[in-house]
Amino acid sequence: MSPKPQQQQPPGTQSPDCGEESYRGSGRLAGKAAVVAGGDSRIGRAVAIAFAREGADVLISNLGEHEDARDTARLVEDAGRRAVLVPGQPIL
């Protein structure tokens, strides 16, 4: 007996709050830089926001969801940090 196929619409929708409303940083990463892969996803967005609110500049890589990645970059910049977008493409 094989498992029933599942249906899922990629990409997933952003959750109501990935930290943009709830997370308050304390400057633990002041003067540092961070690389976040998947900055166009919910987890990647939450990590980028947290790193920025802790004081780090953030390089955000993404595959395909460029508008979501730009939104994440805007949230990083709203936290007073620098955001660099690096779009990629899948290796086939």
State the main characteristics.
92 residues; alpha/beta; three-stranded parallel sheet; 27% helix; globular
Topology summary:
Blueprint: E1 33-37, H1 42-53, E2 57-63, H2 66-78, E3 83-88
Parallel strand pairs: 1-2, 2-3
Number of H/I helices = 2
Please give the largest β-sheet.
3 strands, parallel
Report the C-alpha radius of gyration, rounded.
Answer: 15 Å
Q: Mean pLDDT, as a whole number?
A: 86
Distance N terminus to C terminus?
Answer: 32 Å
Helix/strand order, N-terminal first: EHEHE
Amount of beta strand: 15-25%
Global morphology: globular
| Number of E-state strands | 3
Q: Which stretches are poorly predicted, pLDDT < 50 over at least 5 residues? A: none
Strand line-up in the sheet with most strands:
1-2-3
Structural class: alpha/beta
Helix content range: 25-40%
